[in-house]
Design brief:
The chain is of the alpha+beta class. The longest helix has 22 residues. A hairpin with a 2-residue loop joins strand 1 and strand 2. It has 4 helices and 4 strands, in the order H-H-H-E-E-H-E-E. It has a 4-stranded mixed β-sheet with strand order 1-2-3-4, with helices on both faces. The protein is 36% helix and 18% strand. The protein has one domain.
Length: 169
């Protein structure tokens, strides 16, 4: 059991290294978009105050994803709140297709949104909504193989900017 925890922590650190250093996605997301006529698409606003998310709420959301009797495709899950982004890392318990990984990631984003929204008194998601917390935070969701230590191997990953309508896979 201890060896499994060590391997899990190593995988999480490798995944986070890819997110921060390899993909450079965090830096790209921090750049403000060039103003263009986008119709009804909301522009990001760095001036809005974000609700704070405590470690207790993060633990509740993580426990909800990995609870007994939950989705058996989730082997492990990690949620990290870093400045303006919520990162949801899912280690799939067995091999799944890209479409199933996207469905799993979408469900995780909604589930985490529901827990966080209910704990900090925001509107909870319904229908196609992911959660009101994502009006204030960007979200990264990645679904990775449980037993792989190679961060370049993933089933699916996606990003949704604060205020955007959907996740880009």
């Amino acid at each position: 059991m201890r060896k499994r925890n060590i391997i899990f922590l190593l995988v999480v650190m490798l995944v986070m290294g890819v997110i921060v250093f390899g993909l450079n996605s965090t830096e790209q997301l921090k750049k403000e978009p060039v103003p263009v006529n986008t119709g009804n698409v909301p522009q990001r606003s760095g001036d809005t105050e974000r609700p704070s998310i405590s470690e207790k709420v993060i633990k509740l959301a993580t426990d909800e994803l990995t609870k007994e009797g939950g989705d058996d495709r989730i082997g492990e899950a990690v949620i990290i709140v870093d400045q303006n982004m919520i990162k949801i890392i899912i280690m799939a318990s067995h091999a799944i297709s890209e479409d199933n990984a996207k469905q799993l990631g979408l469900g995780a984003v909604k589930q985490v949104g529901t827990v966080i929204d209910s704990q900090i008194s925001l509107d909870t998601p319904g229908g196609d909504l992911y959660g009101s917390i994502y009006d204030h935070y960007d979200v990264y969701v990645g679904v990775y193989p449980m037993r792989e230590l190679d961060p370049d191997k993933y089933y699916a990953y996606g990003v949704k900017l604060a205020g955007a309508k959907e996740i880009i896979w």
